[in-house]
Amino acid sequence: MEVSMEYYKEANRFLQKYGSDAFKIIAAYEVAADISQTERYADWYGDYGIFEPSLNEEMTYDKLLSRYKAGLKYLGIIHEQAKAVCSRFLSEQLAEHIREQFGRHNADAEYRPTSVITKMDTPEFTRDMLAVDRDMEVDCDIGHQITCYLETWFDVDKKFGTNTAADDDKWLNLYAKYDPFADTLRLEFTVTTADSCEEGEYVPTVAESQLIKEMIAEKLREEYGQTPKEFCEDVGGIEIGGMTQ
Question: Full-prediction pTM beyond 0.70?
């Protein structure tokens, strides 16, 4: 009984911290990873219509957190997005997405999981939804990647599945990472509060990617009279790894 009580306390502490949606994600991960029923930490309780901790007495807070993080990783989301994702997708759908990402990651160790958010019906970026900040950074490795802050003039919660509007002390910052030599673009965001910061990634559509590349190029031409490649190569006015002067 003492062991059972300890496992229950661990599970309850995790539930209080991360909520029942975390158990839905853990359940999806366990199915996708073919973890045996006796070794799973999450179960579906049909009478209540929710996912809850299993009766596995080997469960600990850290073990739950490890599986939750693994689920988030292969869903391509952060904790802040869990509520929106779990309200939109069934556990079986989440498991299928995780299984897809397993396969791609096994085939390519450098593969970055695609976010399940891309399967949600969200508004596509238009020019009036974004503004490129004039201050930009160039990476300090090979000097090919431009990082810039993007002002967001749209409902970030609807677009990214976050929940910043409910908390005045929570905000989202969006950044573009553009390599004009490889012609690649990544979008990363942070969700910040007074005592926490989560980092996530959004995979833009082809049209969104092209739009943001064009907007960055236009900003560089307007502010510095340079193309993106010239901006990277002209280290005379740039402190590599730091803000432009």
Answer: yes
